[in-house]
Amino acid sequence: MHLTLEFGGGLELLLENSTKVHKVEITTSKDGQGKVTTPKEGQDKVTMKSLLSWVKDNLIKERPEMFVKGDSVRPGVLVLVNDCDWELCGGLDAELEEKDVVVFISTLHGG
Amino acid sequence: MGGGGGGGGRREAIERELKKLRAEREDLDGRIRLLESQLEATPAGVSGAAAGIGVEDGACGGSVACQSRVSNGFKLDGGLPADMVYRYSRHLLLPDFGVEGQRKLSQSSILVVGAGGLGSPVALYLAACGVGCLGIVDGDDVELNNLHRQIIHKEAYVGQSKVKSAADACREINSSIKVVEHHHTLKPCNALEVVRKYDIVVDATDNLPTRYMISDCCVLLSKPLVSGAALGLEGQLTVYHHNGSPCYRCLFPSPPPVAACQRCSDSGVLGVVPGVIGCLQALEAIKIATGVGEPLCGRMLLFDALSARVRIVKIRGSSPDCTHCGKNSVFTEQDFQKFDYENFTQSPMSDKAAPSVNLLPESARITCRDYKKLVDNGEPHLLLDVRPAHHFQIASISPSLNIPLSMLEEKLSTLETSLKETGEASTLVVLCRRGNDSQRAVKLLHEKGFASAKDIIGGLQAWGQDVDPHFPVY
């Protein structure tokens, strides 16, 4: 599955070269969560939960505790699936579809 | 949806009658305006209500005075005198805004919390556009390093109160509005009293605990909150607690870890970024005050200056289970006044200093004065600066070796080589900006076998204060 992942509000600092936009190809299966494999038809759906674990294993280069807490994102991070708060589309259980855009953004406090 | 027929016919009759009456009213209004302008034209310069210049706290005269006054020259019958028509003519020409929009604006009172990078354009635009009562609250003084982004302040005001500086600037732009100065930091003990006097609150602050506090306060007092934030090259904007939008706690029930709270004073900010967000905050406040347009409720604007992209996303509505704005909330004004926001967020109610850490035994630390003596005595040592490379480029003590803390572990061999060059018995002295990262570095170095490593207490900041007053502070 092809997804566009975007990181902002400082979360990009946890990724290699502080790159904000990542076009990725991802699939997960029940027994091998987080593994990058070639997409096959009829494979298990990618949920936000499995995506988080994939991002943590494949993209986050340092201080994972600045991105995840437990099996969700840490407090202060907004997650948006196709420009919509993930709380409105199922949170961790939200199922992703081909070409979805997922944004992780840390809330800012400065001014 | 049924019930058409006869009901529909009757409806049409009423609508026709309404249309006729409205046309008559418009005609009458036109004649009234004409007569009024003839009356106004006689003694030139006499506008309706005199400009109010509230100077100190409470000068606003309480909520009633602040909210229901007929201001900006609007007369009791709602008409605008000639000079005000001229001043706001470009507003009046907007079909969606018009006299009604201007009248509502002139009767509204808006509180801007923070006269910094965000608050500067907010206050300037709100003053210029003719809001009735503009309150500005901030406890800080203007500093030279504010001026690149806090465009309301001028060089002449460096060292003076930000609120005084901002209020003077607003009055220079528009002497017909009331500007109220609140010369103190907004805190749980005074927030209710201040916020109560206003219709709309603009959060233009720079720290996390204050953001939670302002949101809670607005929930308790049922005030719409226009919230903006900026850092680095990014900005965020939304309207909380208005038209079904969430409060800050609905969105962020738990505060983020301290390490995730970046400050402009640590991470930097491009001046125009808070400027852009502040302008949008002023716009949202004007929309709420006038009822014109759709405020950014239940939506959030994300601004990325680097890629020139603005993204507007849908966010959750107010949560019925929210501990503060939910229907079962038991949070009272008394609870609010006692709530320790700094403890809740583990961060200070200011953008200033990062909380200093204390990781090392005294034997592993030296003061910058002792370090100066060590240099003067010619003792063999290596000065390791662990700040990020772009900090090192701003200013550094010569000679020193720069290995940023984030790369220290992988560059231990470089360090080892440099240490050998300075001599076997040399001390390894570690330096950073404020004396926190240097402690983290020394801790790591001890673990890796660099037993002689010591950190300079207070870092370059202390060096500038205690040893070299000419060292550039940033």
Automatic annotation (TrEMBL), chain A:
Entry keywords, A to Z: Cytoplasm, Isopeptide bond, tRNA processing, Ubl conjugation pathway
Subcellular location: Cytoplasm
GO BP, one annotated term: tRNA thio-modification
Cross-link named Glycyl lysine isopeptide (Gly-Lys) (interchain with K-? in acceptor proteins), sites: G111
Family: Belongs to the URM1 family.
Residues carrying 1-thioglycine: G111
Gene Ontology annotations for the cellular component aspect, listed alphabetically: cytosol; nucleus
Descriptive protein name: Ubiquitin-related modifier 1 homolog
PTMs per UniProt: C-terminal thiocarboxylation occurs in 2 steps, it is first acyl-adenylated (-COAMP) via the hesA/moeB/thiF part of the MOCS3/UBA4 homolog, then thiocarboxylated (-COSH) via the rhodanese domain of the MOCS3/UBA4 homolog.
Role this protein plays: Acts as a sulfur carrier required for 2-thiolation of mcm(5)S(2)U at tRNA wobble positions of cytosolic tRNA(Lys), tRNA(Glu) and tRNA(Gln). Serves as sulfur donor in tRNA 2-thiolation reaction by being thiocarboxylated (-COSH) at its C-terminus by MOCS3. The sulfur is then transferred to tRNA to form 2-thiolation of mcm(5)S(2)U. Also acts as a ubiquitin-like protein (UBL) that is covalently conjugated via an isopeptide bond to lysine residues of target proteins.
Pathway entry: tRNA modification; 5-methoxycarbonylmethyl-2-thiouridine-tRNA biosynthesis
PANTHER family (UniProt xref): RURM1 PROTEIN (PTHR14986)
GO molecular function: protein tag activity
UniProtKB/TrEMBL annotation, chain B:
GO biological process: Mo-molybdopterin cofactor biosynthetic process; tRNA wobble position uridine thiolation
Enzyme Commission designation: 2.7.7.80, 2.8.1.11
Residues given in the record as ATP binding sites: G117, D138, N145, N146, L147, H148, R149, K162, D206, N207
Pfam short name (any one): ThiF
Pathway(s) of this molecule: Cofactor biosynthesis; molybdopterin biosynthesis; tRNA modification; 5-methoxycarbonylmethyl-2-thiouridine-tRNA biosynthesis
Location within or outside the cell: Cytoplasm, Cytosol
Swiss-Prot/TrEMBL cofactor(s): Zn(2+)
Cofactor binding, per record: Binds 1 zinc ion per subunit.
GO cellular component: a single term: cytosol
InterPro entries per the UniProt record, alphabetical: MOCS3/Uba4 (IPR028885), Rhodanese-like_dom (IPR001763), Rhodanese-like_dom_sf (IPR036873), ThiF/MoeB/HesA (IPR045886), ThiF_NAD_FAD-bd (IPR000594), Ubiquitin-activating_enz (IPR035985)
An annotated Gene Ontology molecular function: molybdopterin-synthase adenylyltransferase activity
Start and end residues of each Rhodanese domain: 377-472
Residues the record lists as binding Zn(2+): C247, C250, C322, C325
Catalytic activity: [molybdopterin-synthase sulfur-carrier protein]-C-terminal Gly-Gly-AMP + S-sulfanyl-L-cysteinyl-[cysteine desulfurase] + AH2 = [molybdopterin-synthase sulfur-carrier protein]-C-terminal-Gly-aminoethanethioate + L-cysteinyl-[cysteine desulfurase] + A + AMP + 2 H(+); [molybdopterin-synthase sulfur-carrier protein]-C-terminal Gly-Gly + ATP + H(+) = [molybdopterin-synthase sulfur-carrier protein]-C-terminal Gly-Gly-AMP + diphosphate
Chain coiled-coil ranges: 11-38
Keyword field: ATP-binding, Coiled coil, Cytoplasm, Metal-binding, Molybdenum cofactor biosynthesis, Multifunctional enzyme, Nucleotide-binding, Transferase, tRNA processing, Zinc
Enzyme class: transferase
Active site per the UniProt annotation: C264, C432
Cited PANTHER family: ADENYLYLTRANSFERASE AND SULFURTRANSFERASE MOCS3, UBIQUITIN-ACTIVATING ENZYME E1
Matching NCBIfam families: PRK05690.1
Similarity-based family: In the N-terminal section; belongs to the HesA/MoeB/ThiF family. UBA4 subfamily.
Function in brief: Plays a central role in 2-thiolation of mcm(5)S(2)U at tRNA wobble positions of cytosolic tRNA(Lys), tRNA(Glu) and tRNA(Gln). Also essential during biosynthesis of the molybdenum cofactor. Acts by mediating the C-terminal thiocarboxylation of sulfur carriers URM1 and MOCS2A. Its N-terminus first activates URM1 and MOCS2A as acyl-adenylates (-COAMP), then the persulfide sulfur on the catalytic cysteine is transferred to URM1 and MOCS2A to form thiocarboxylation (-COSH) of their C-terminus.
Protein name (Swiss-Prot/TrEMBL): Adenylyltransferase and sulfurtransferase MOCS3
Organism: Sorghum bicolor
Gene name, Swiss-Prot/TrEMBL: MOCS3
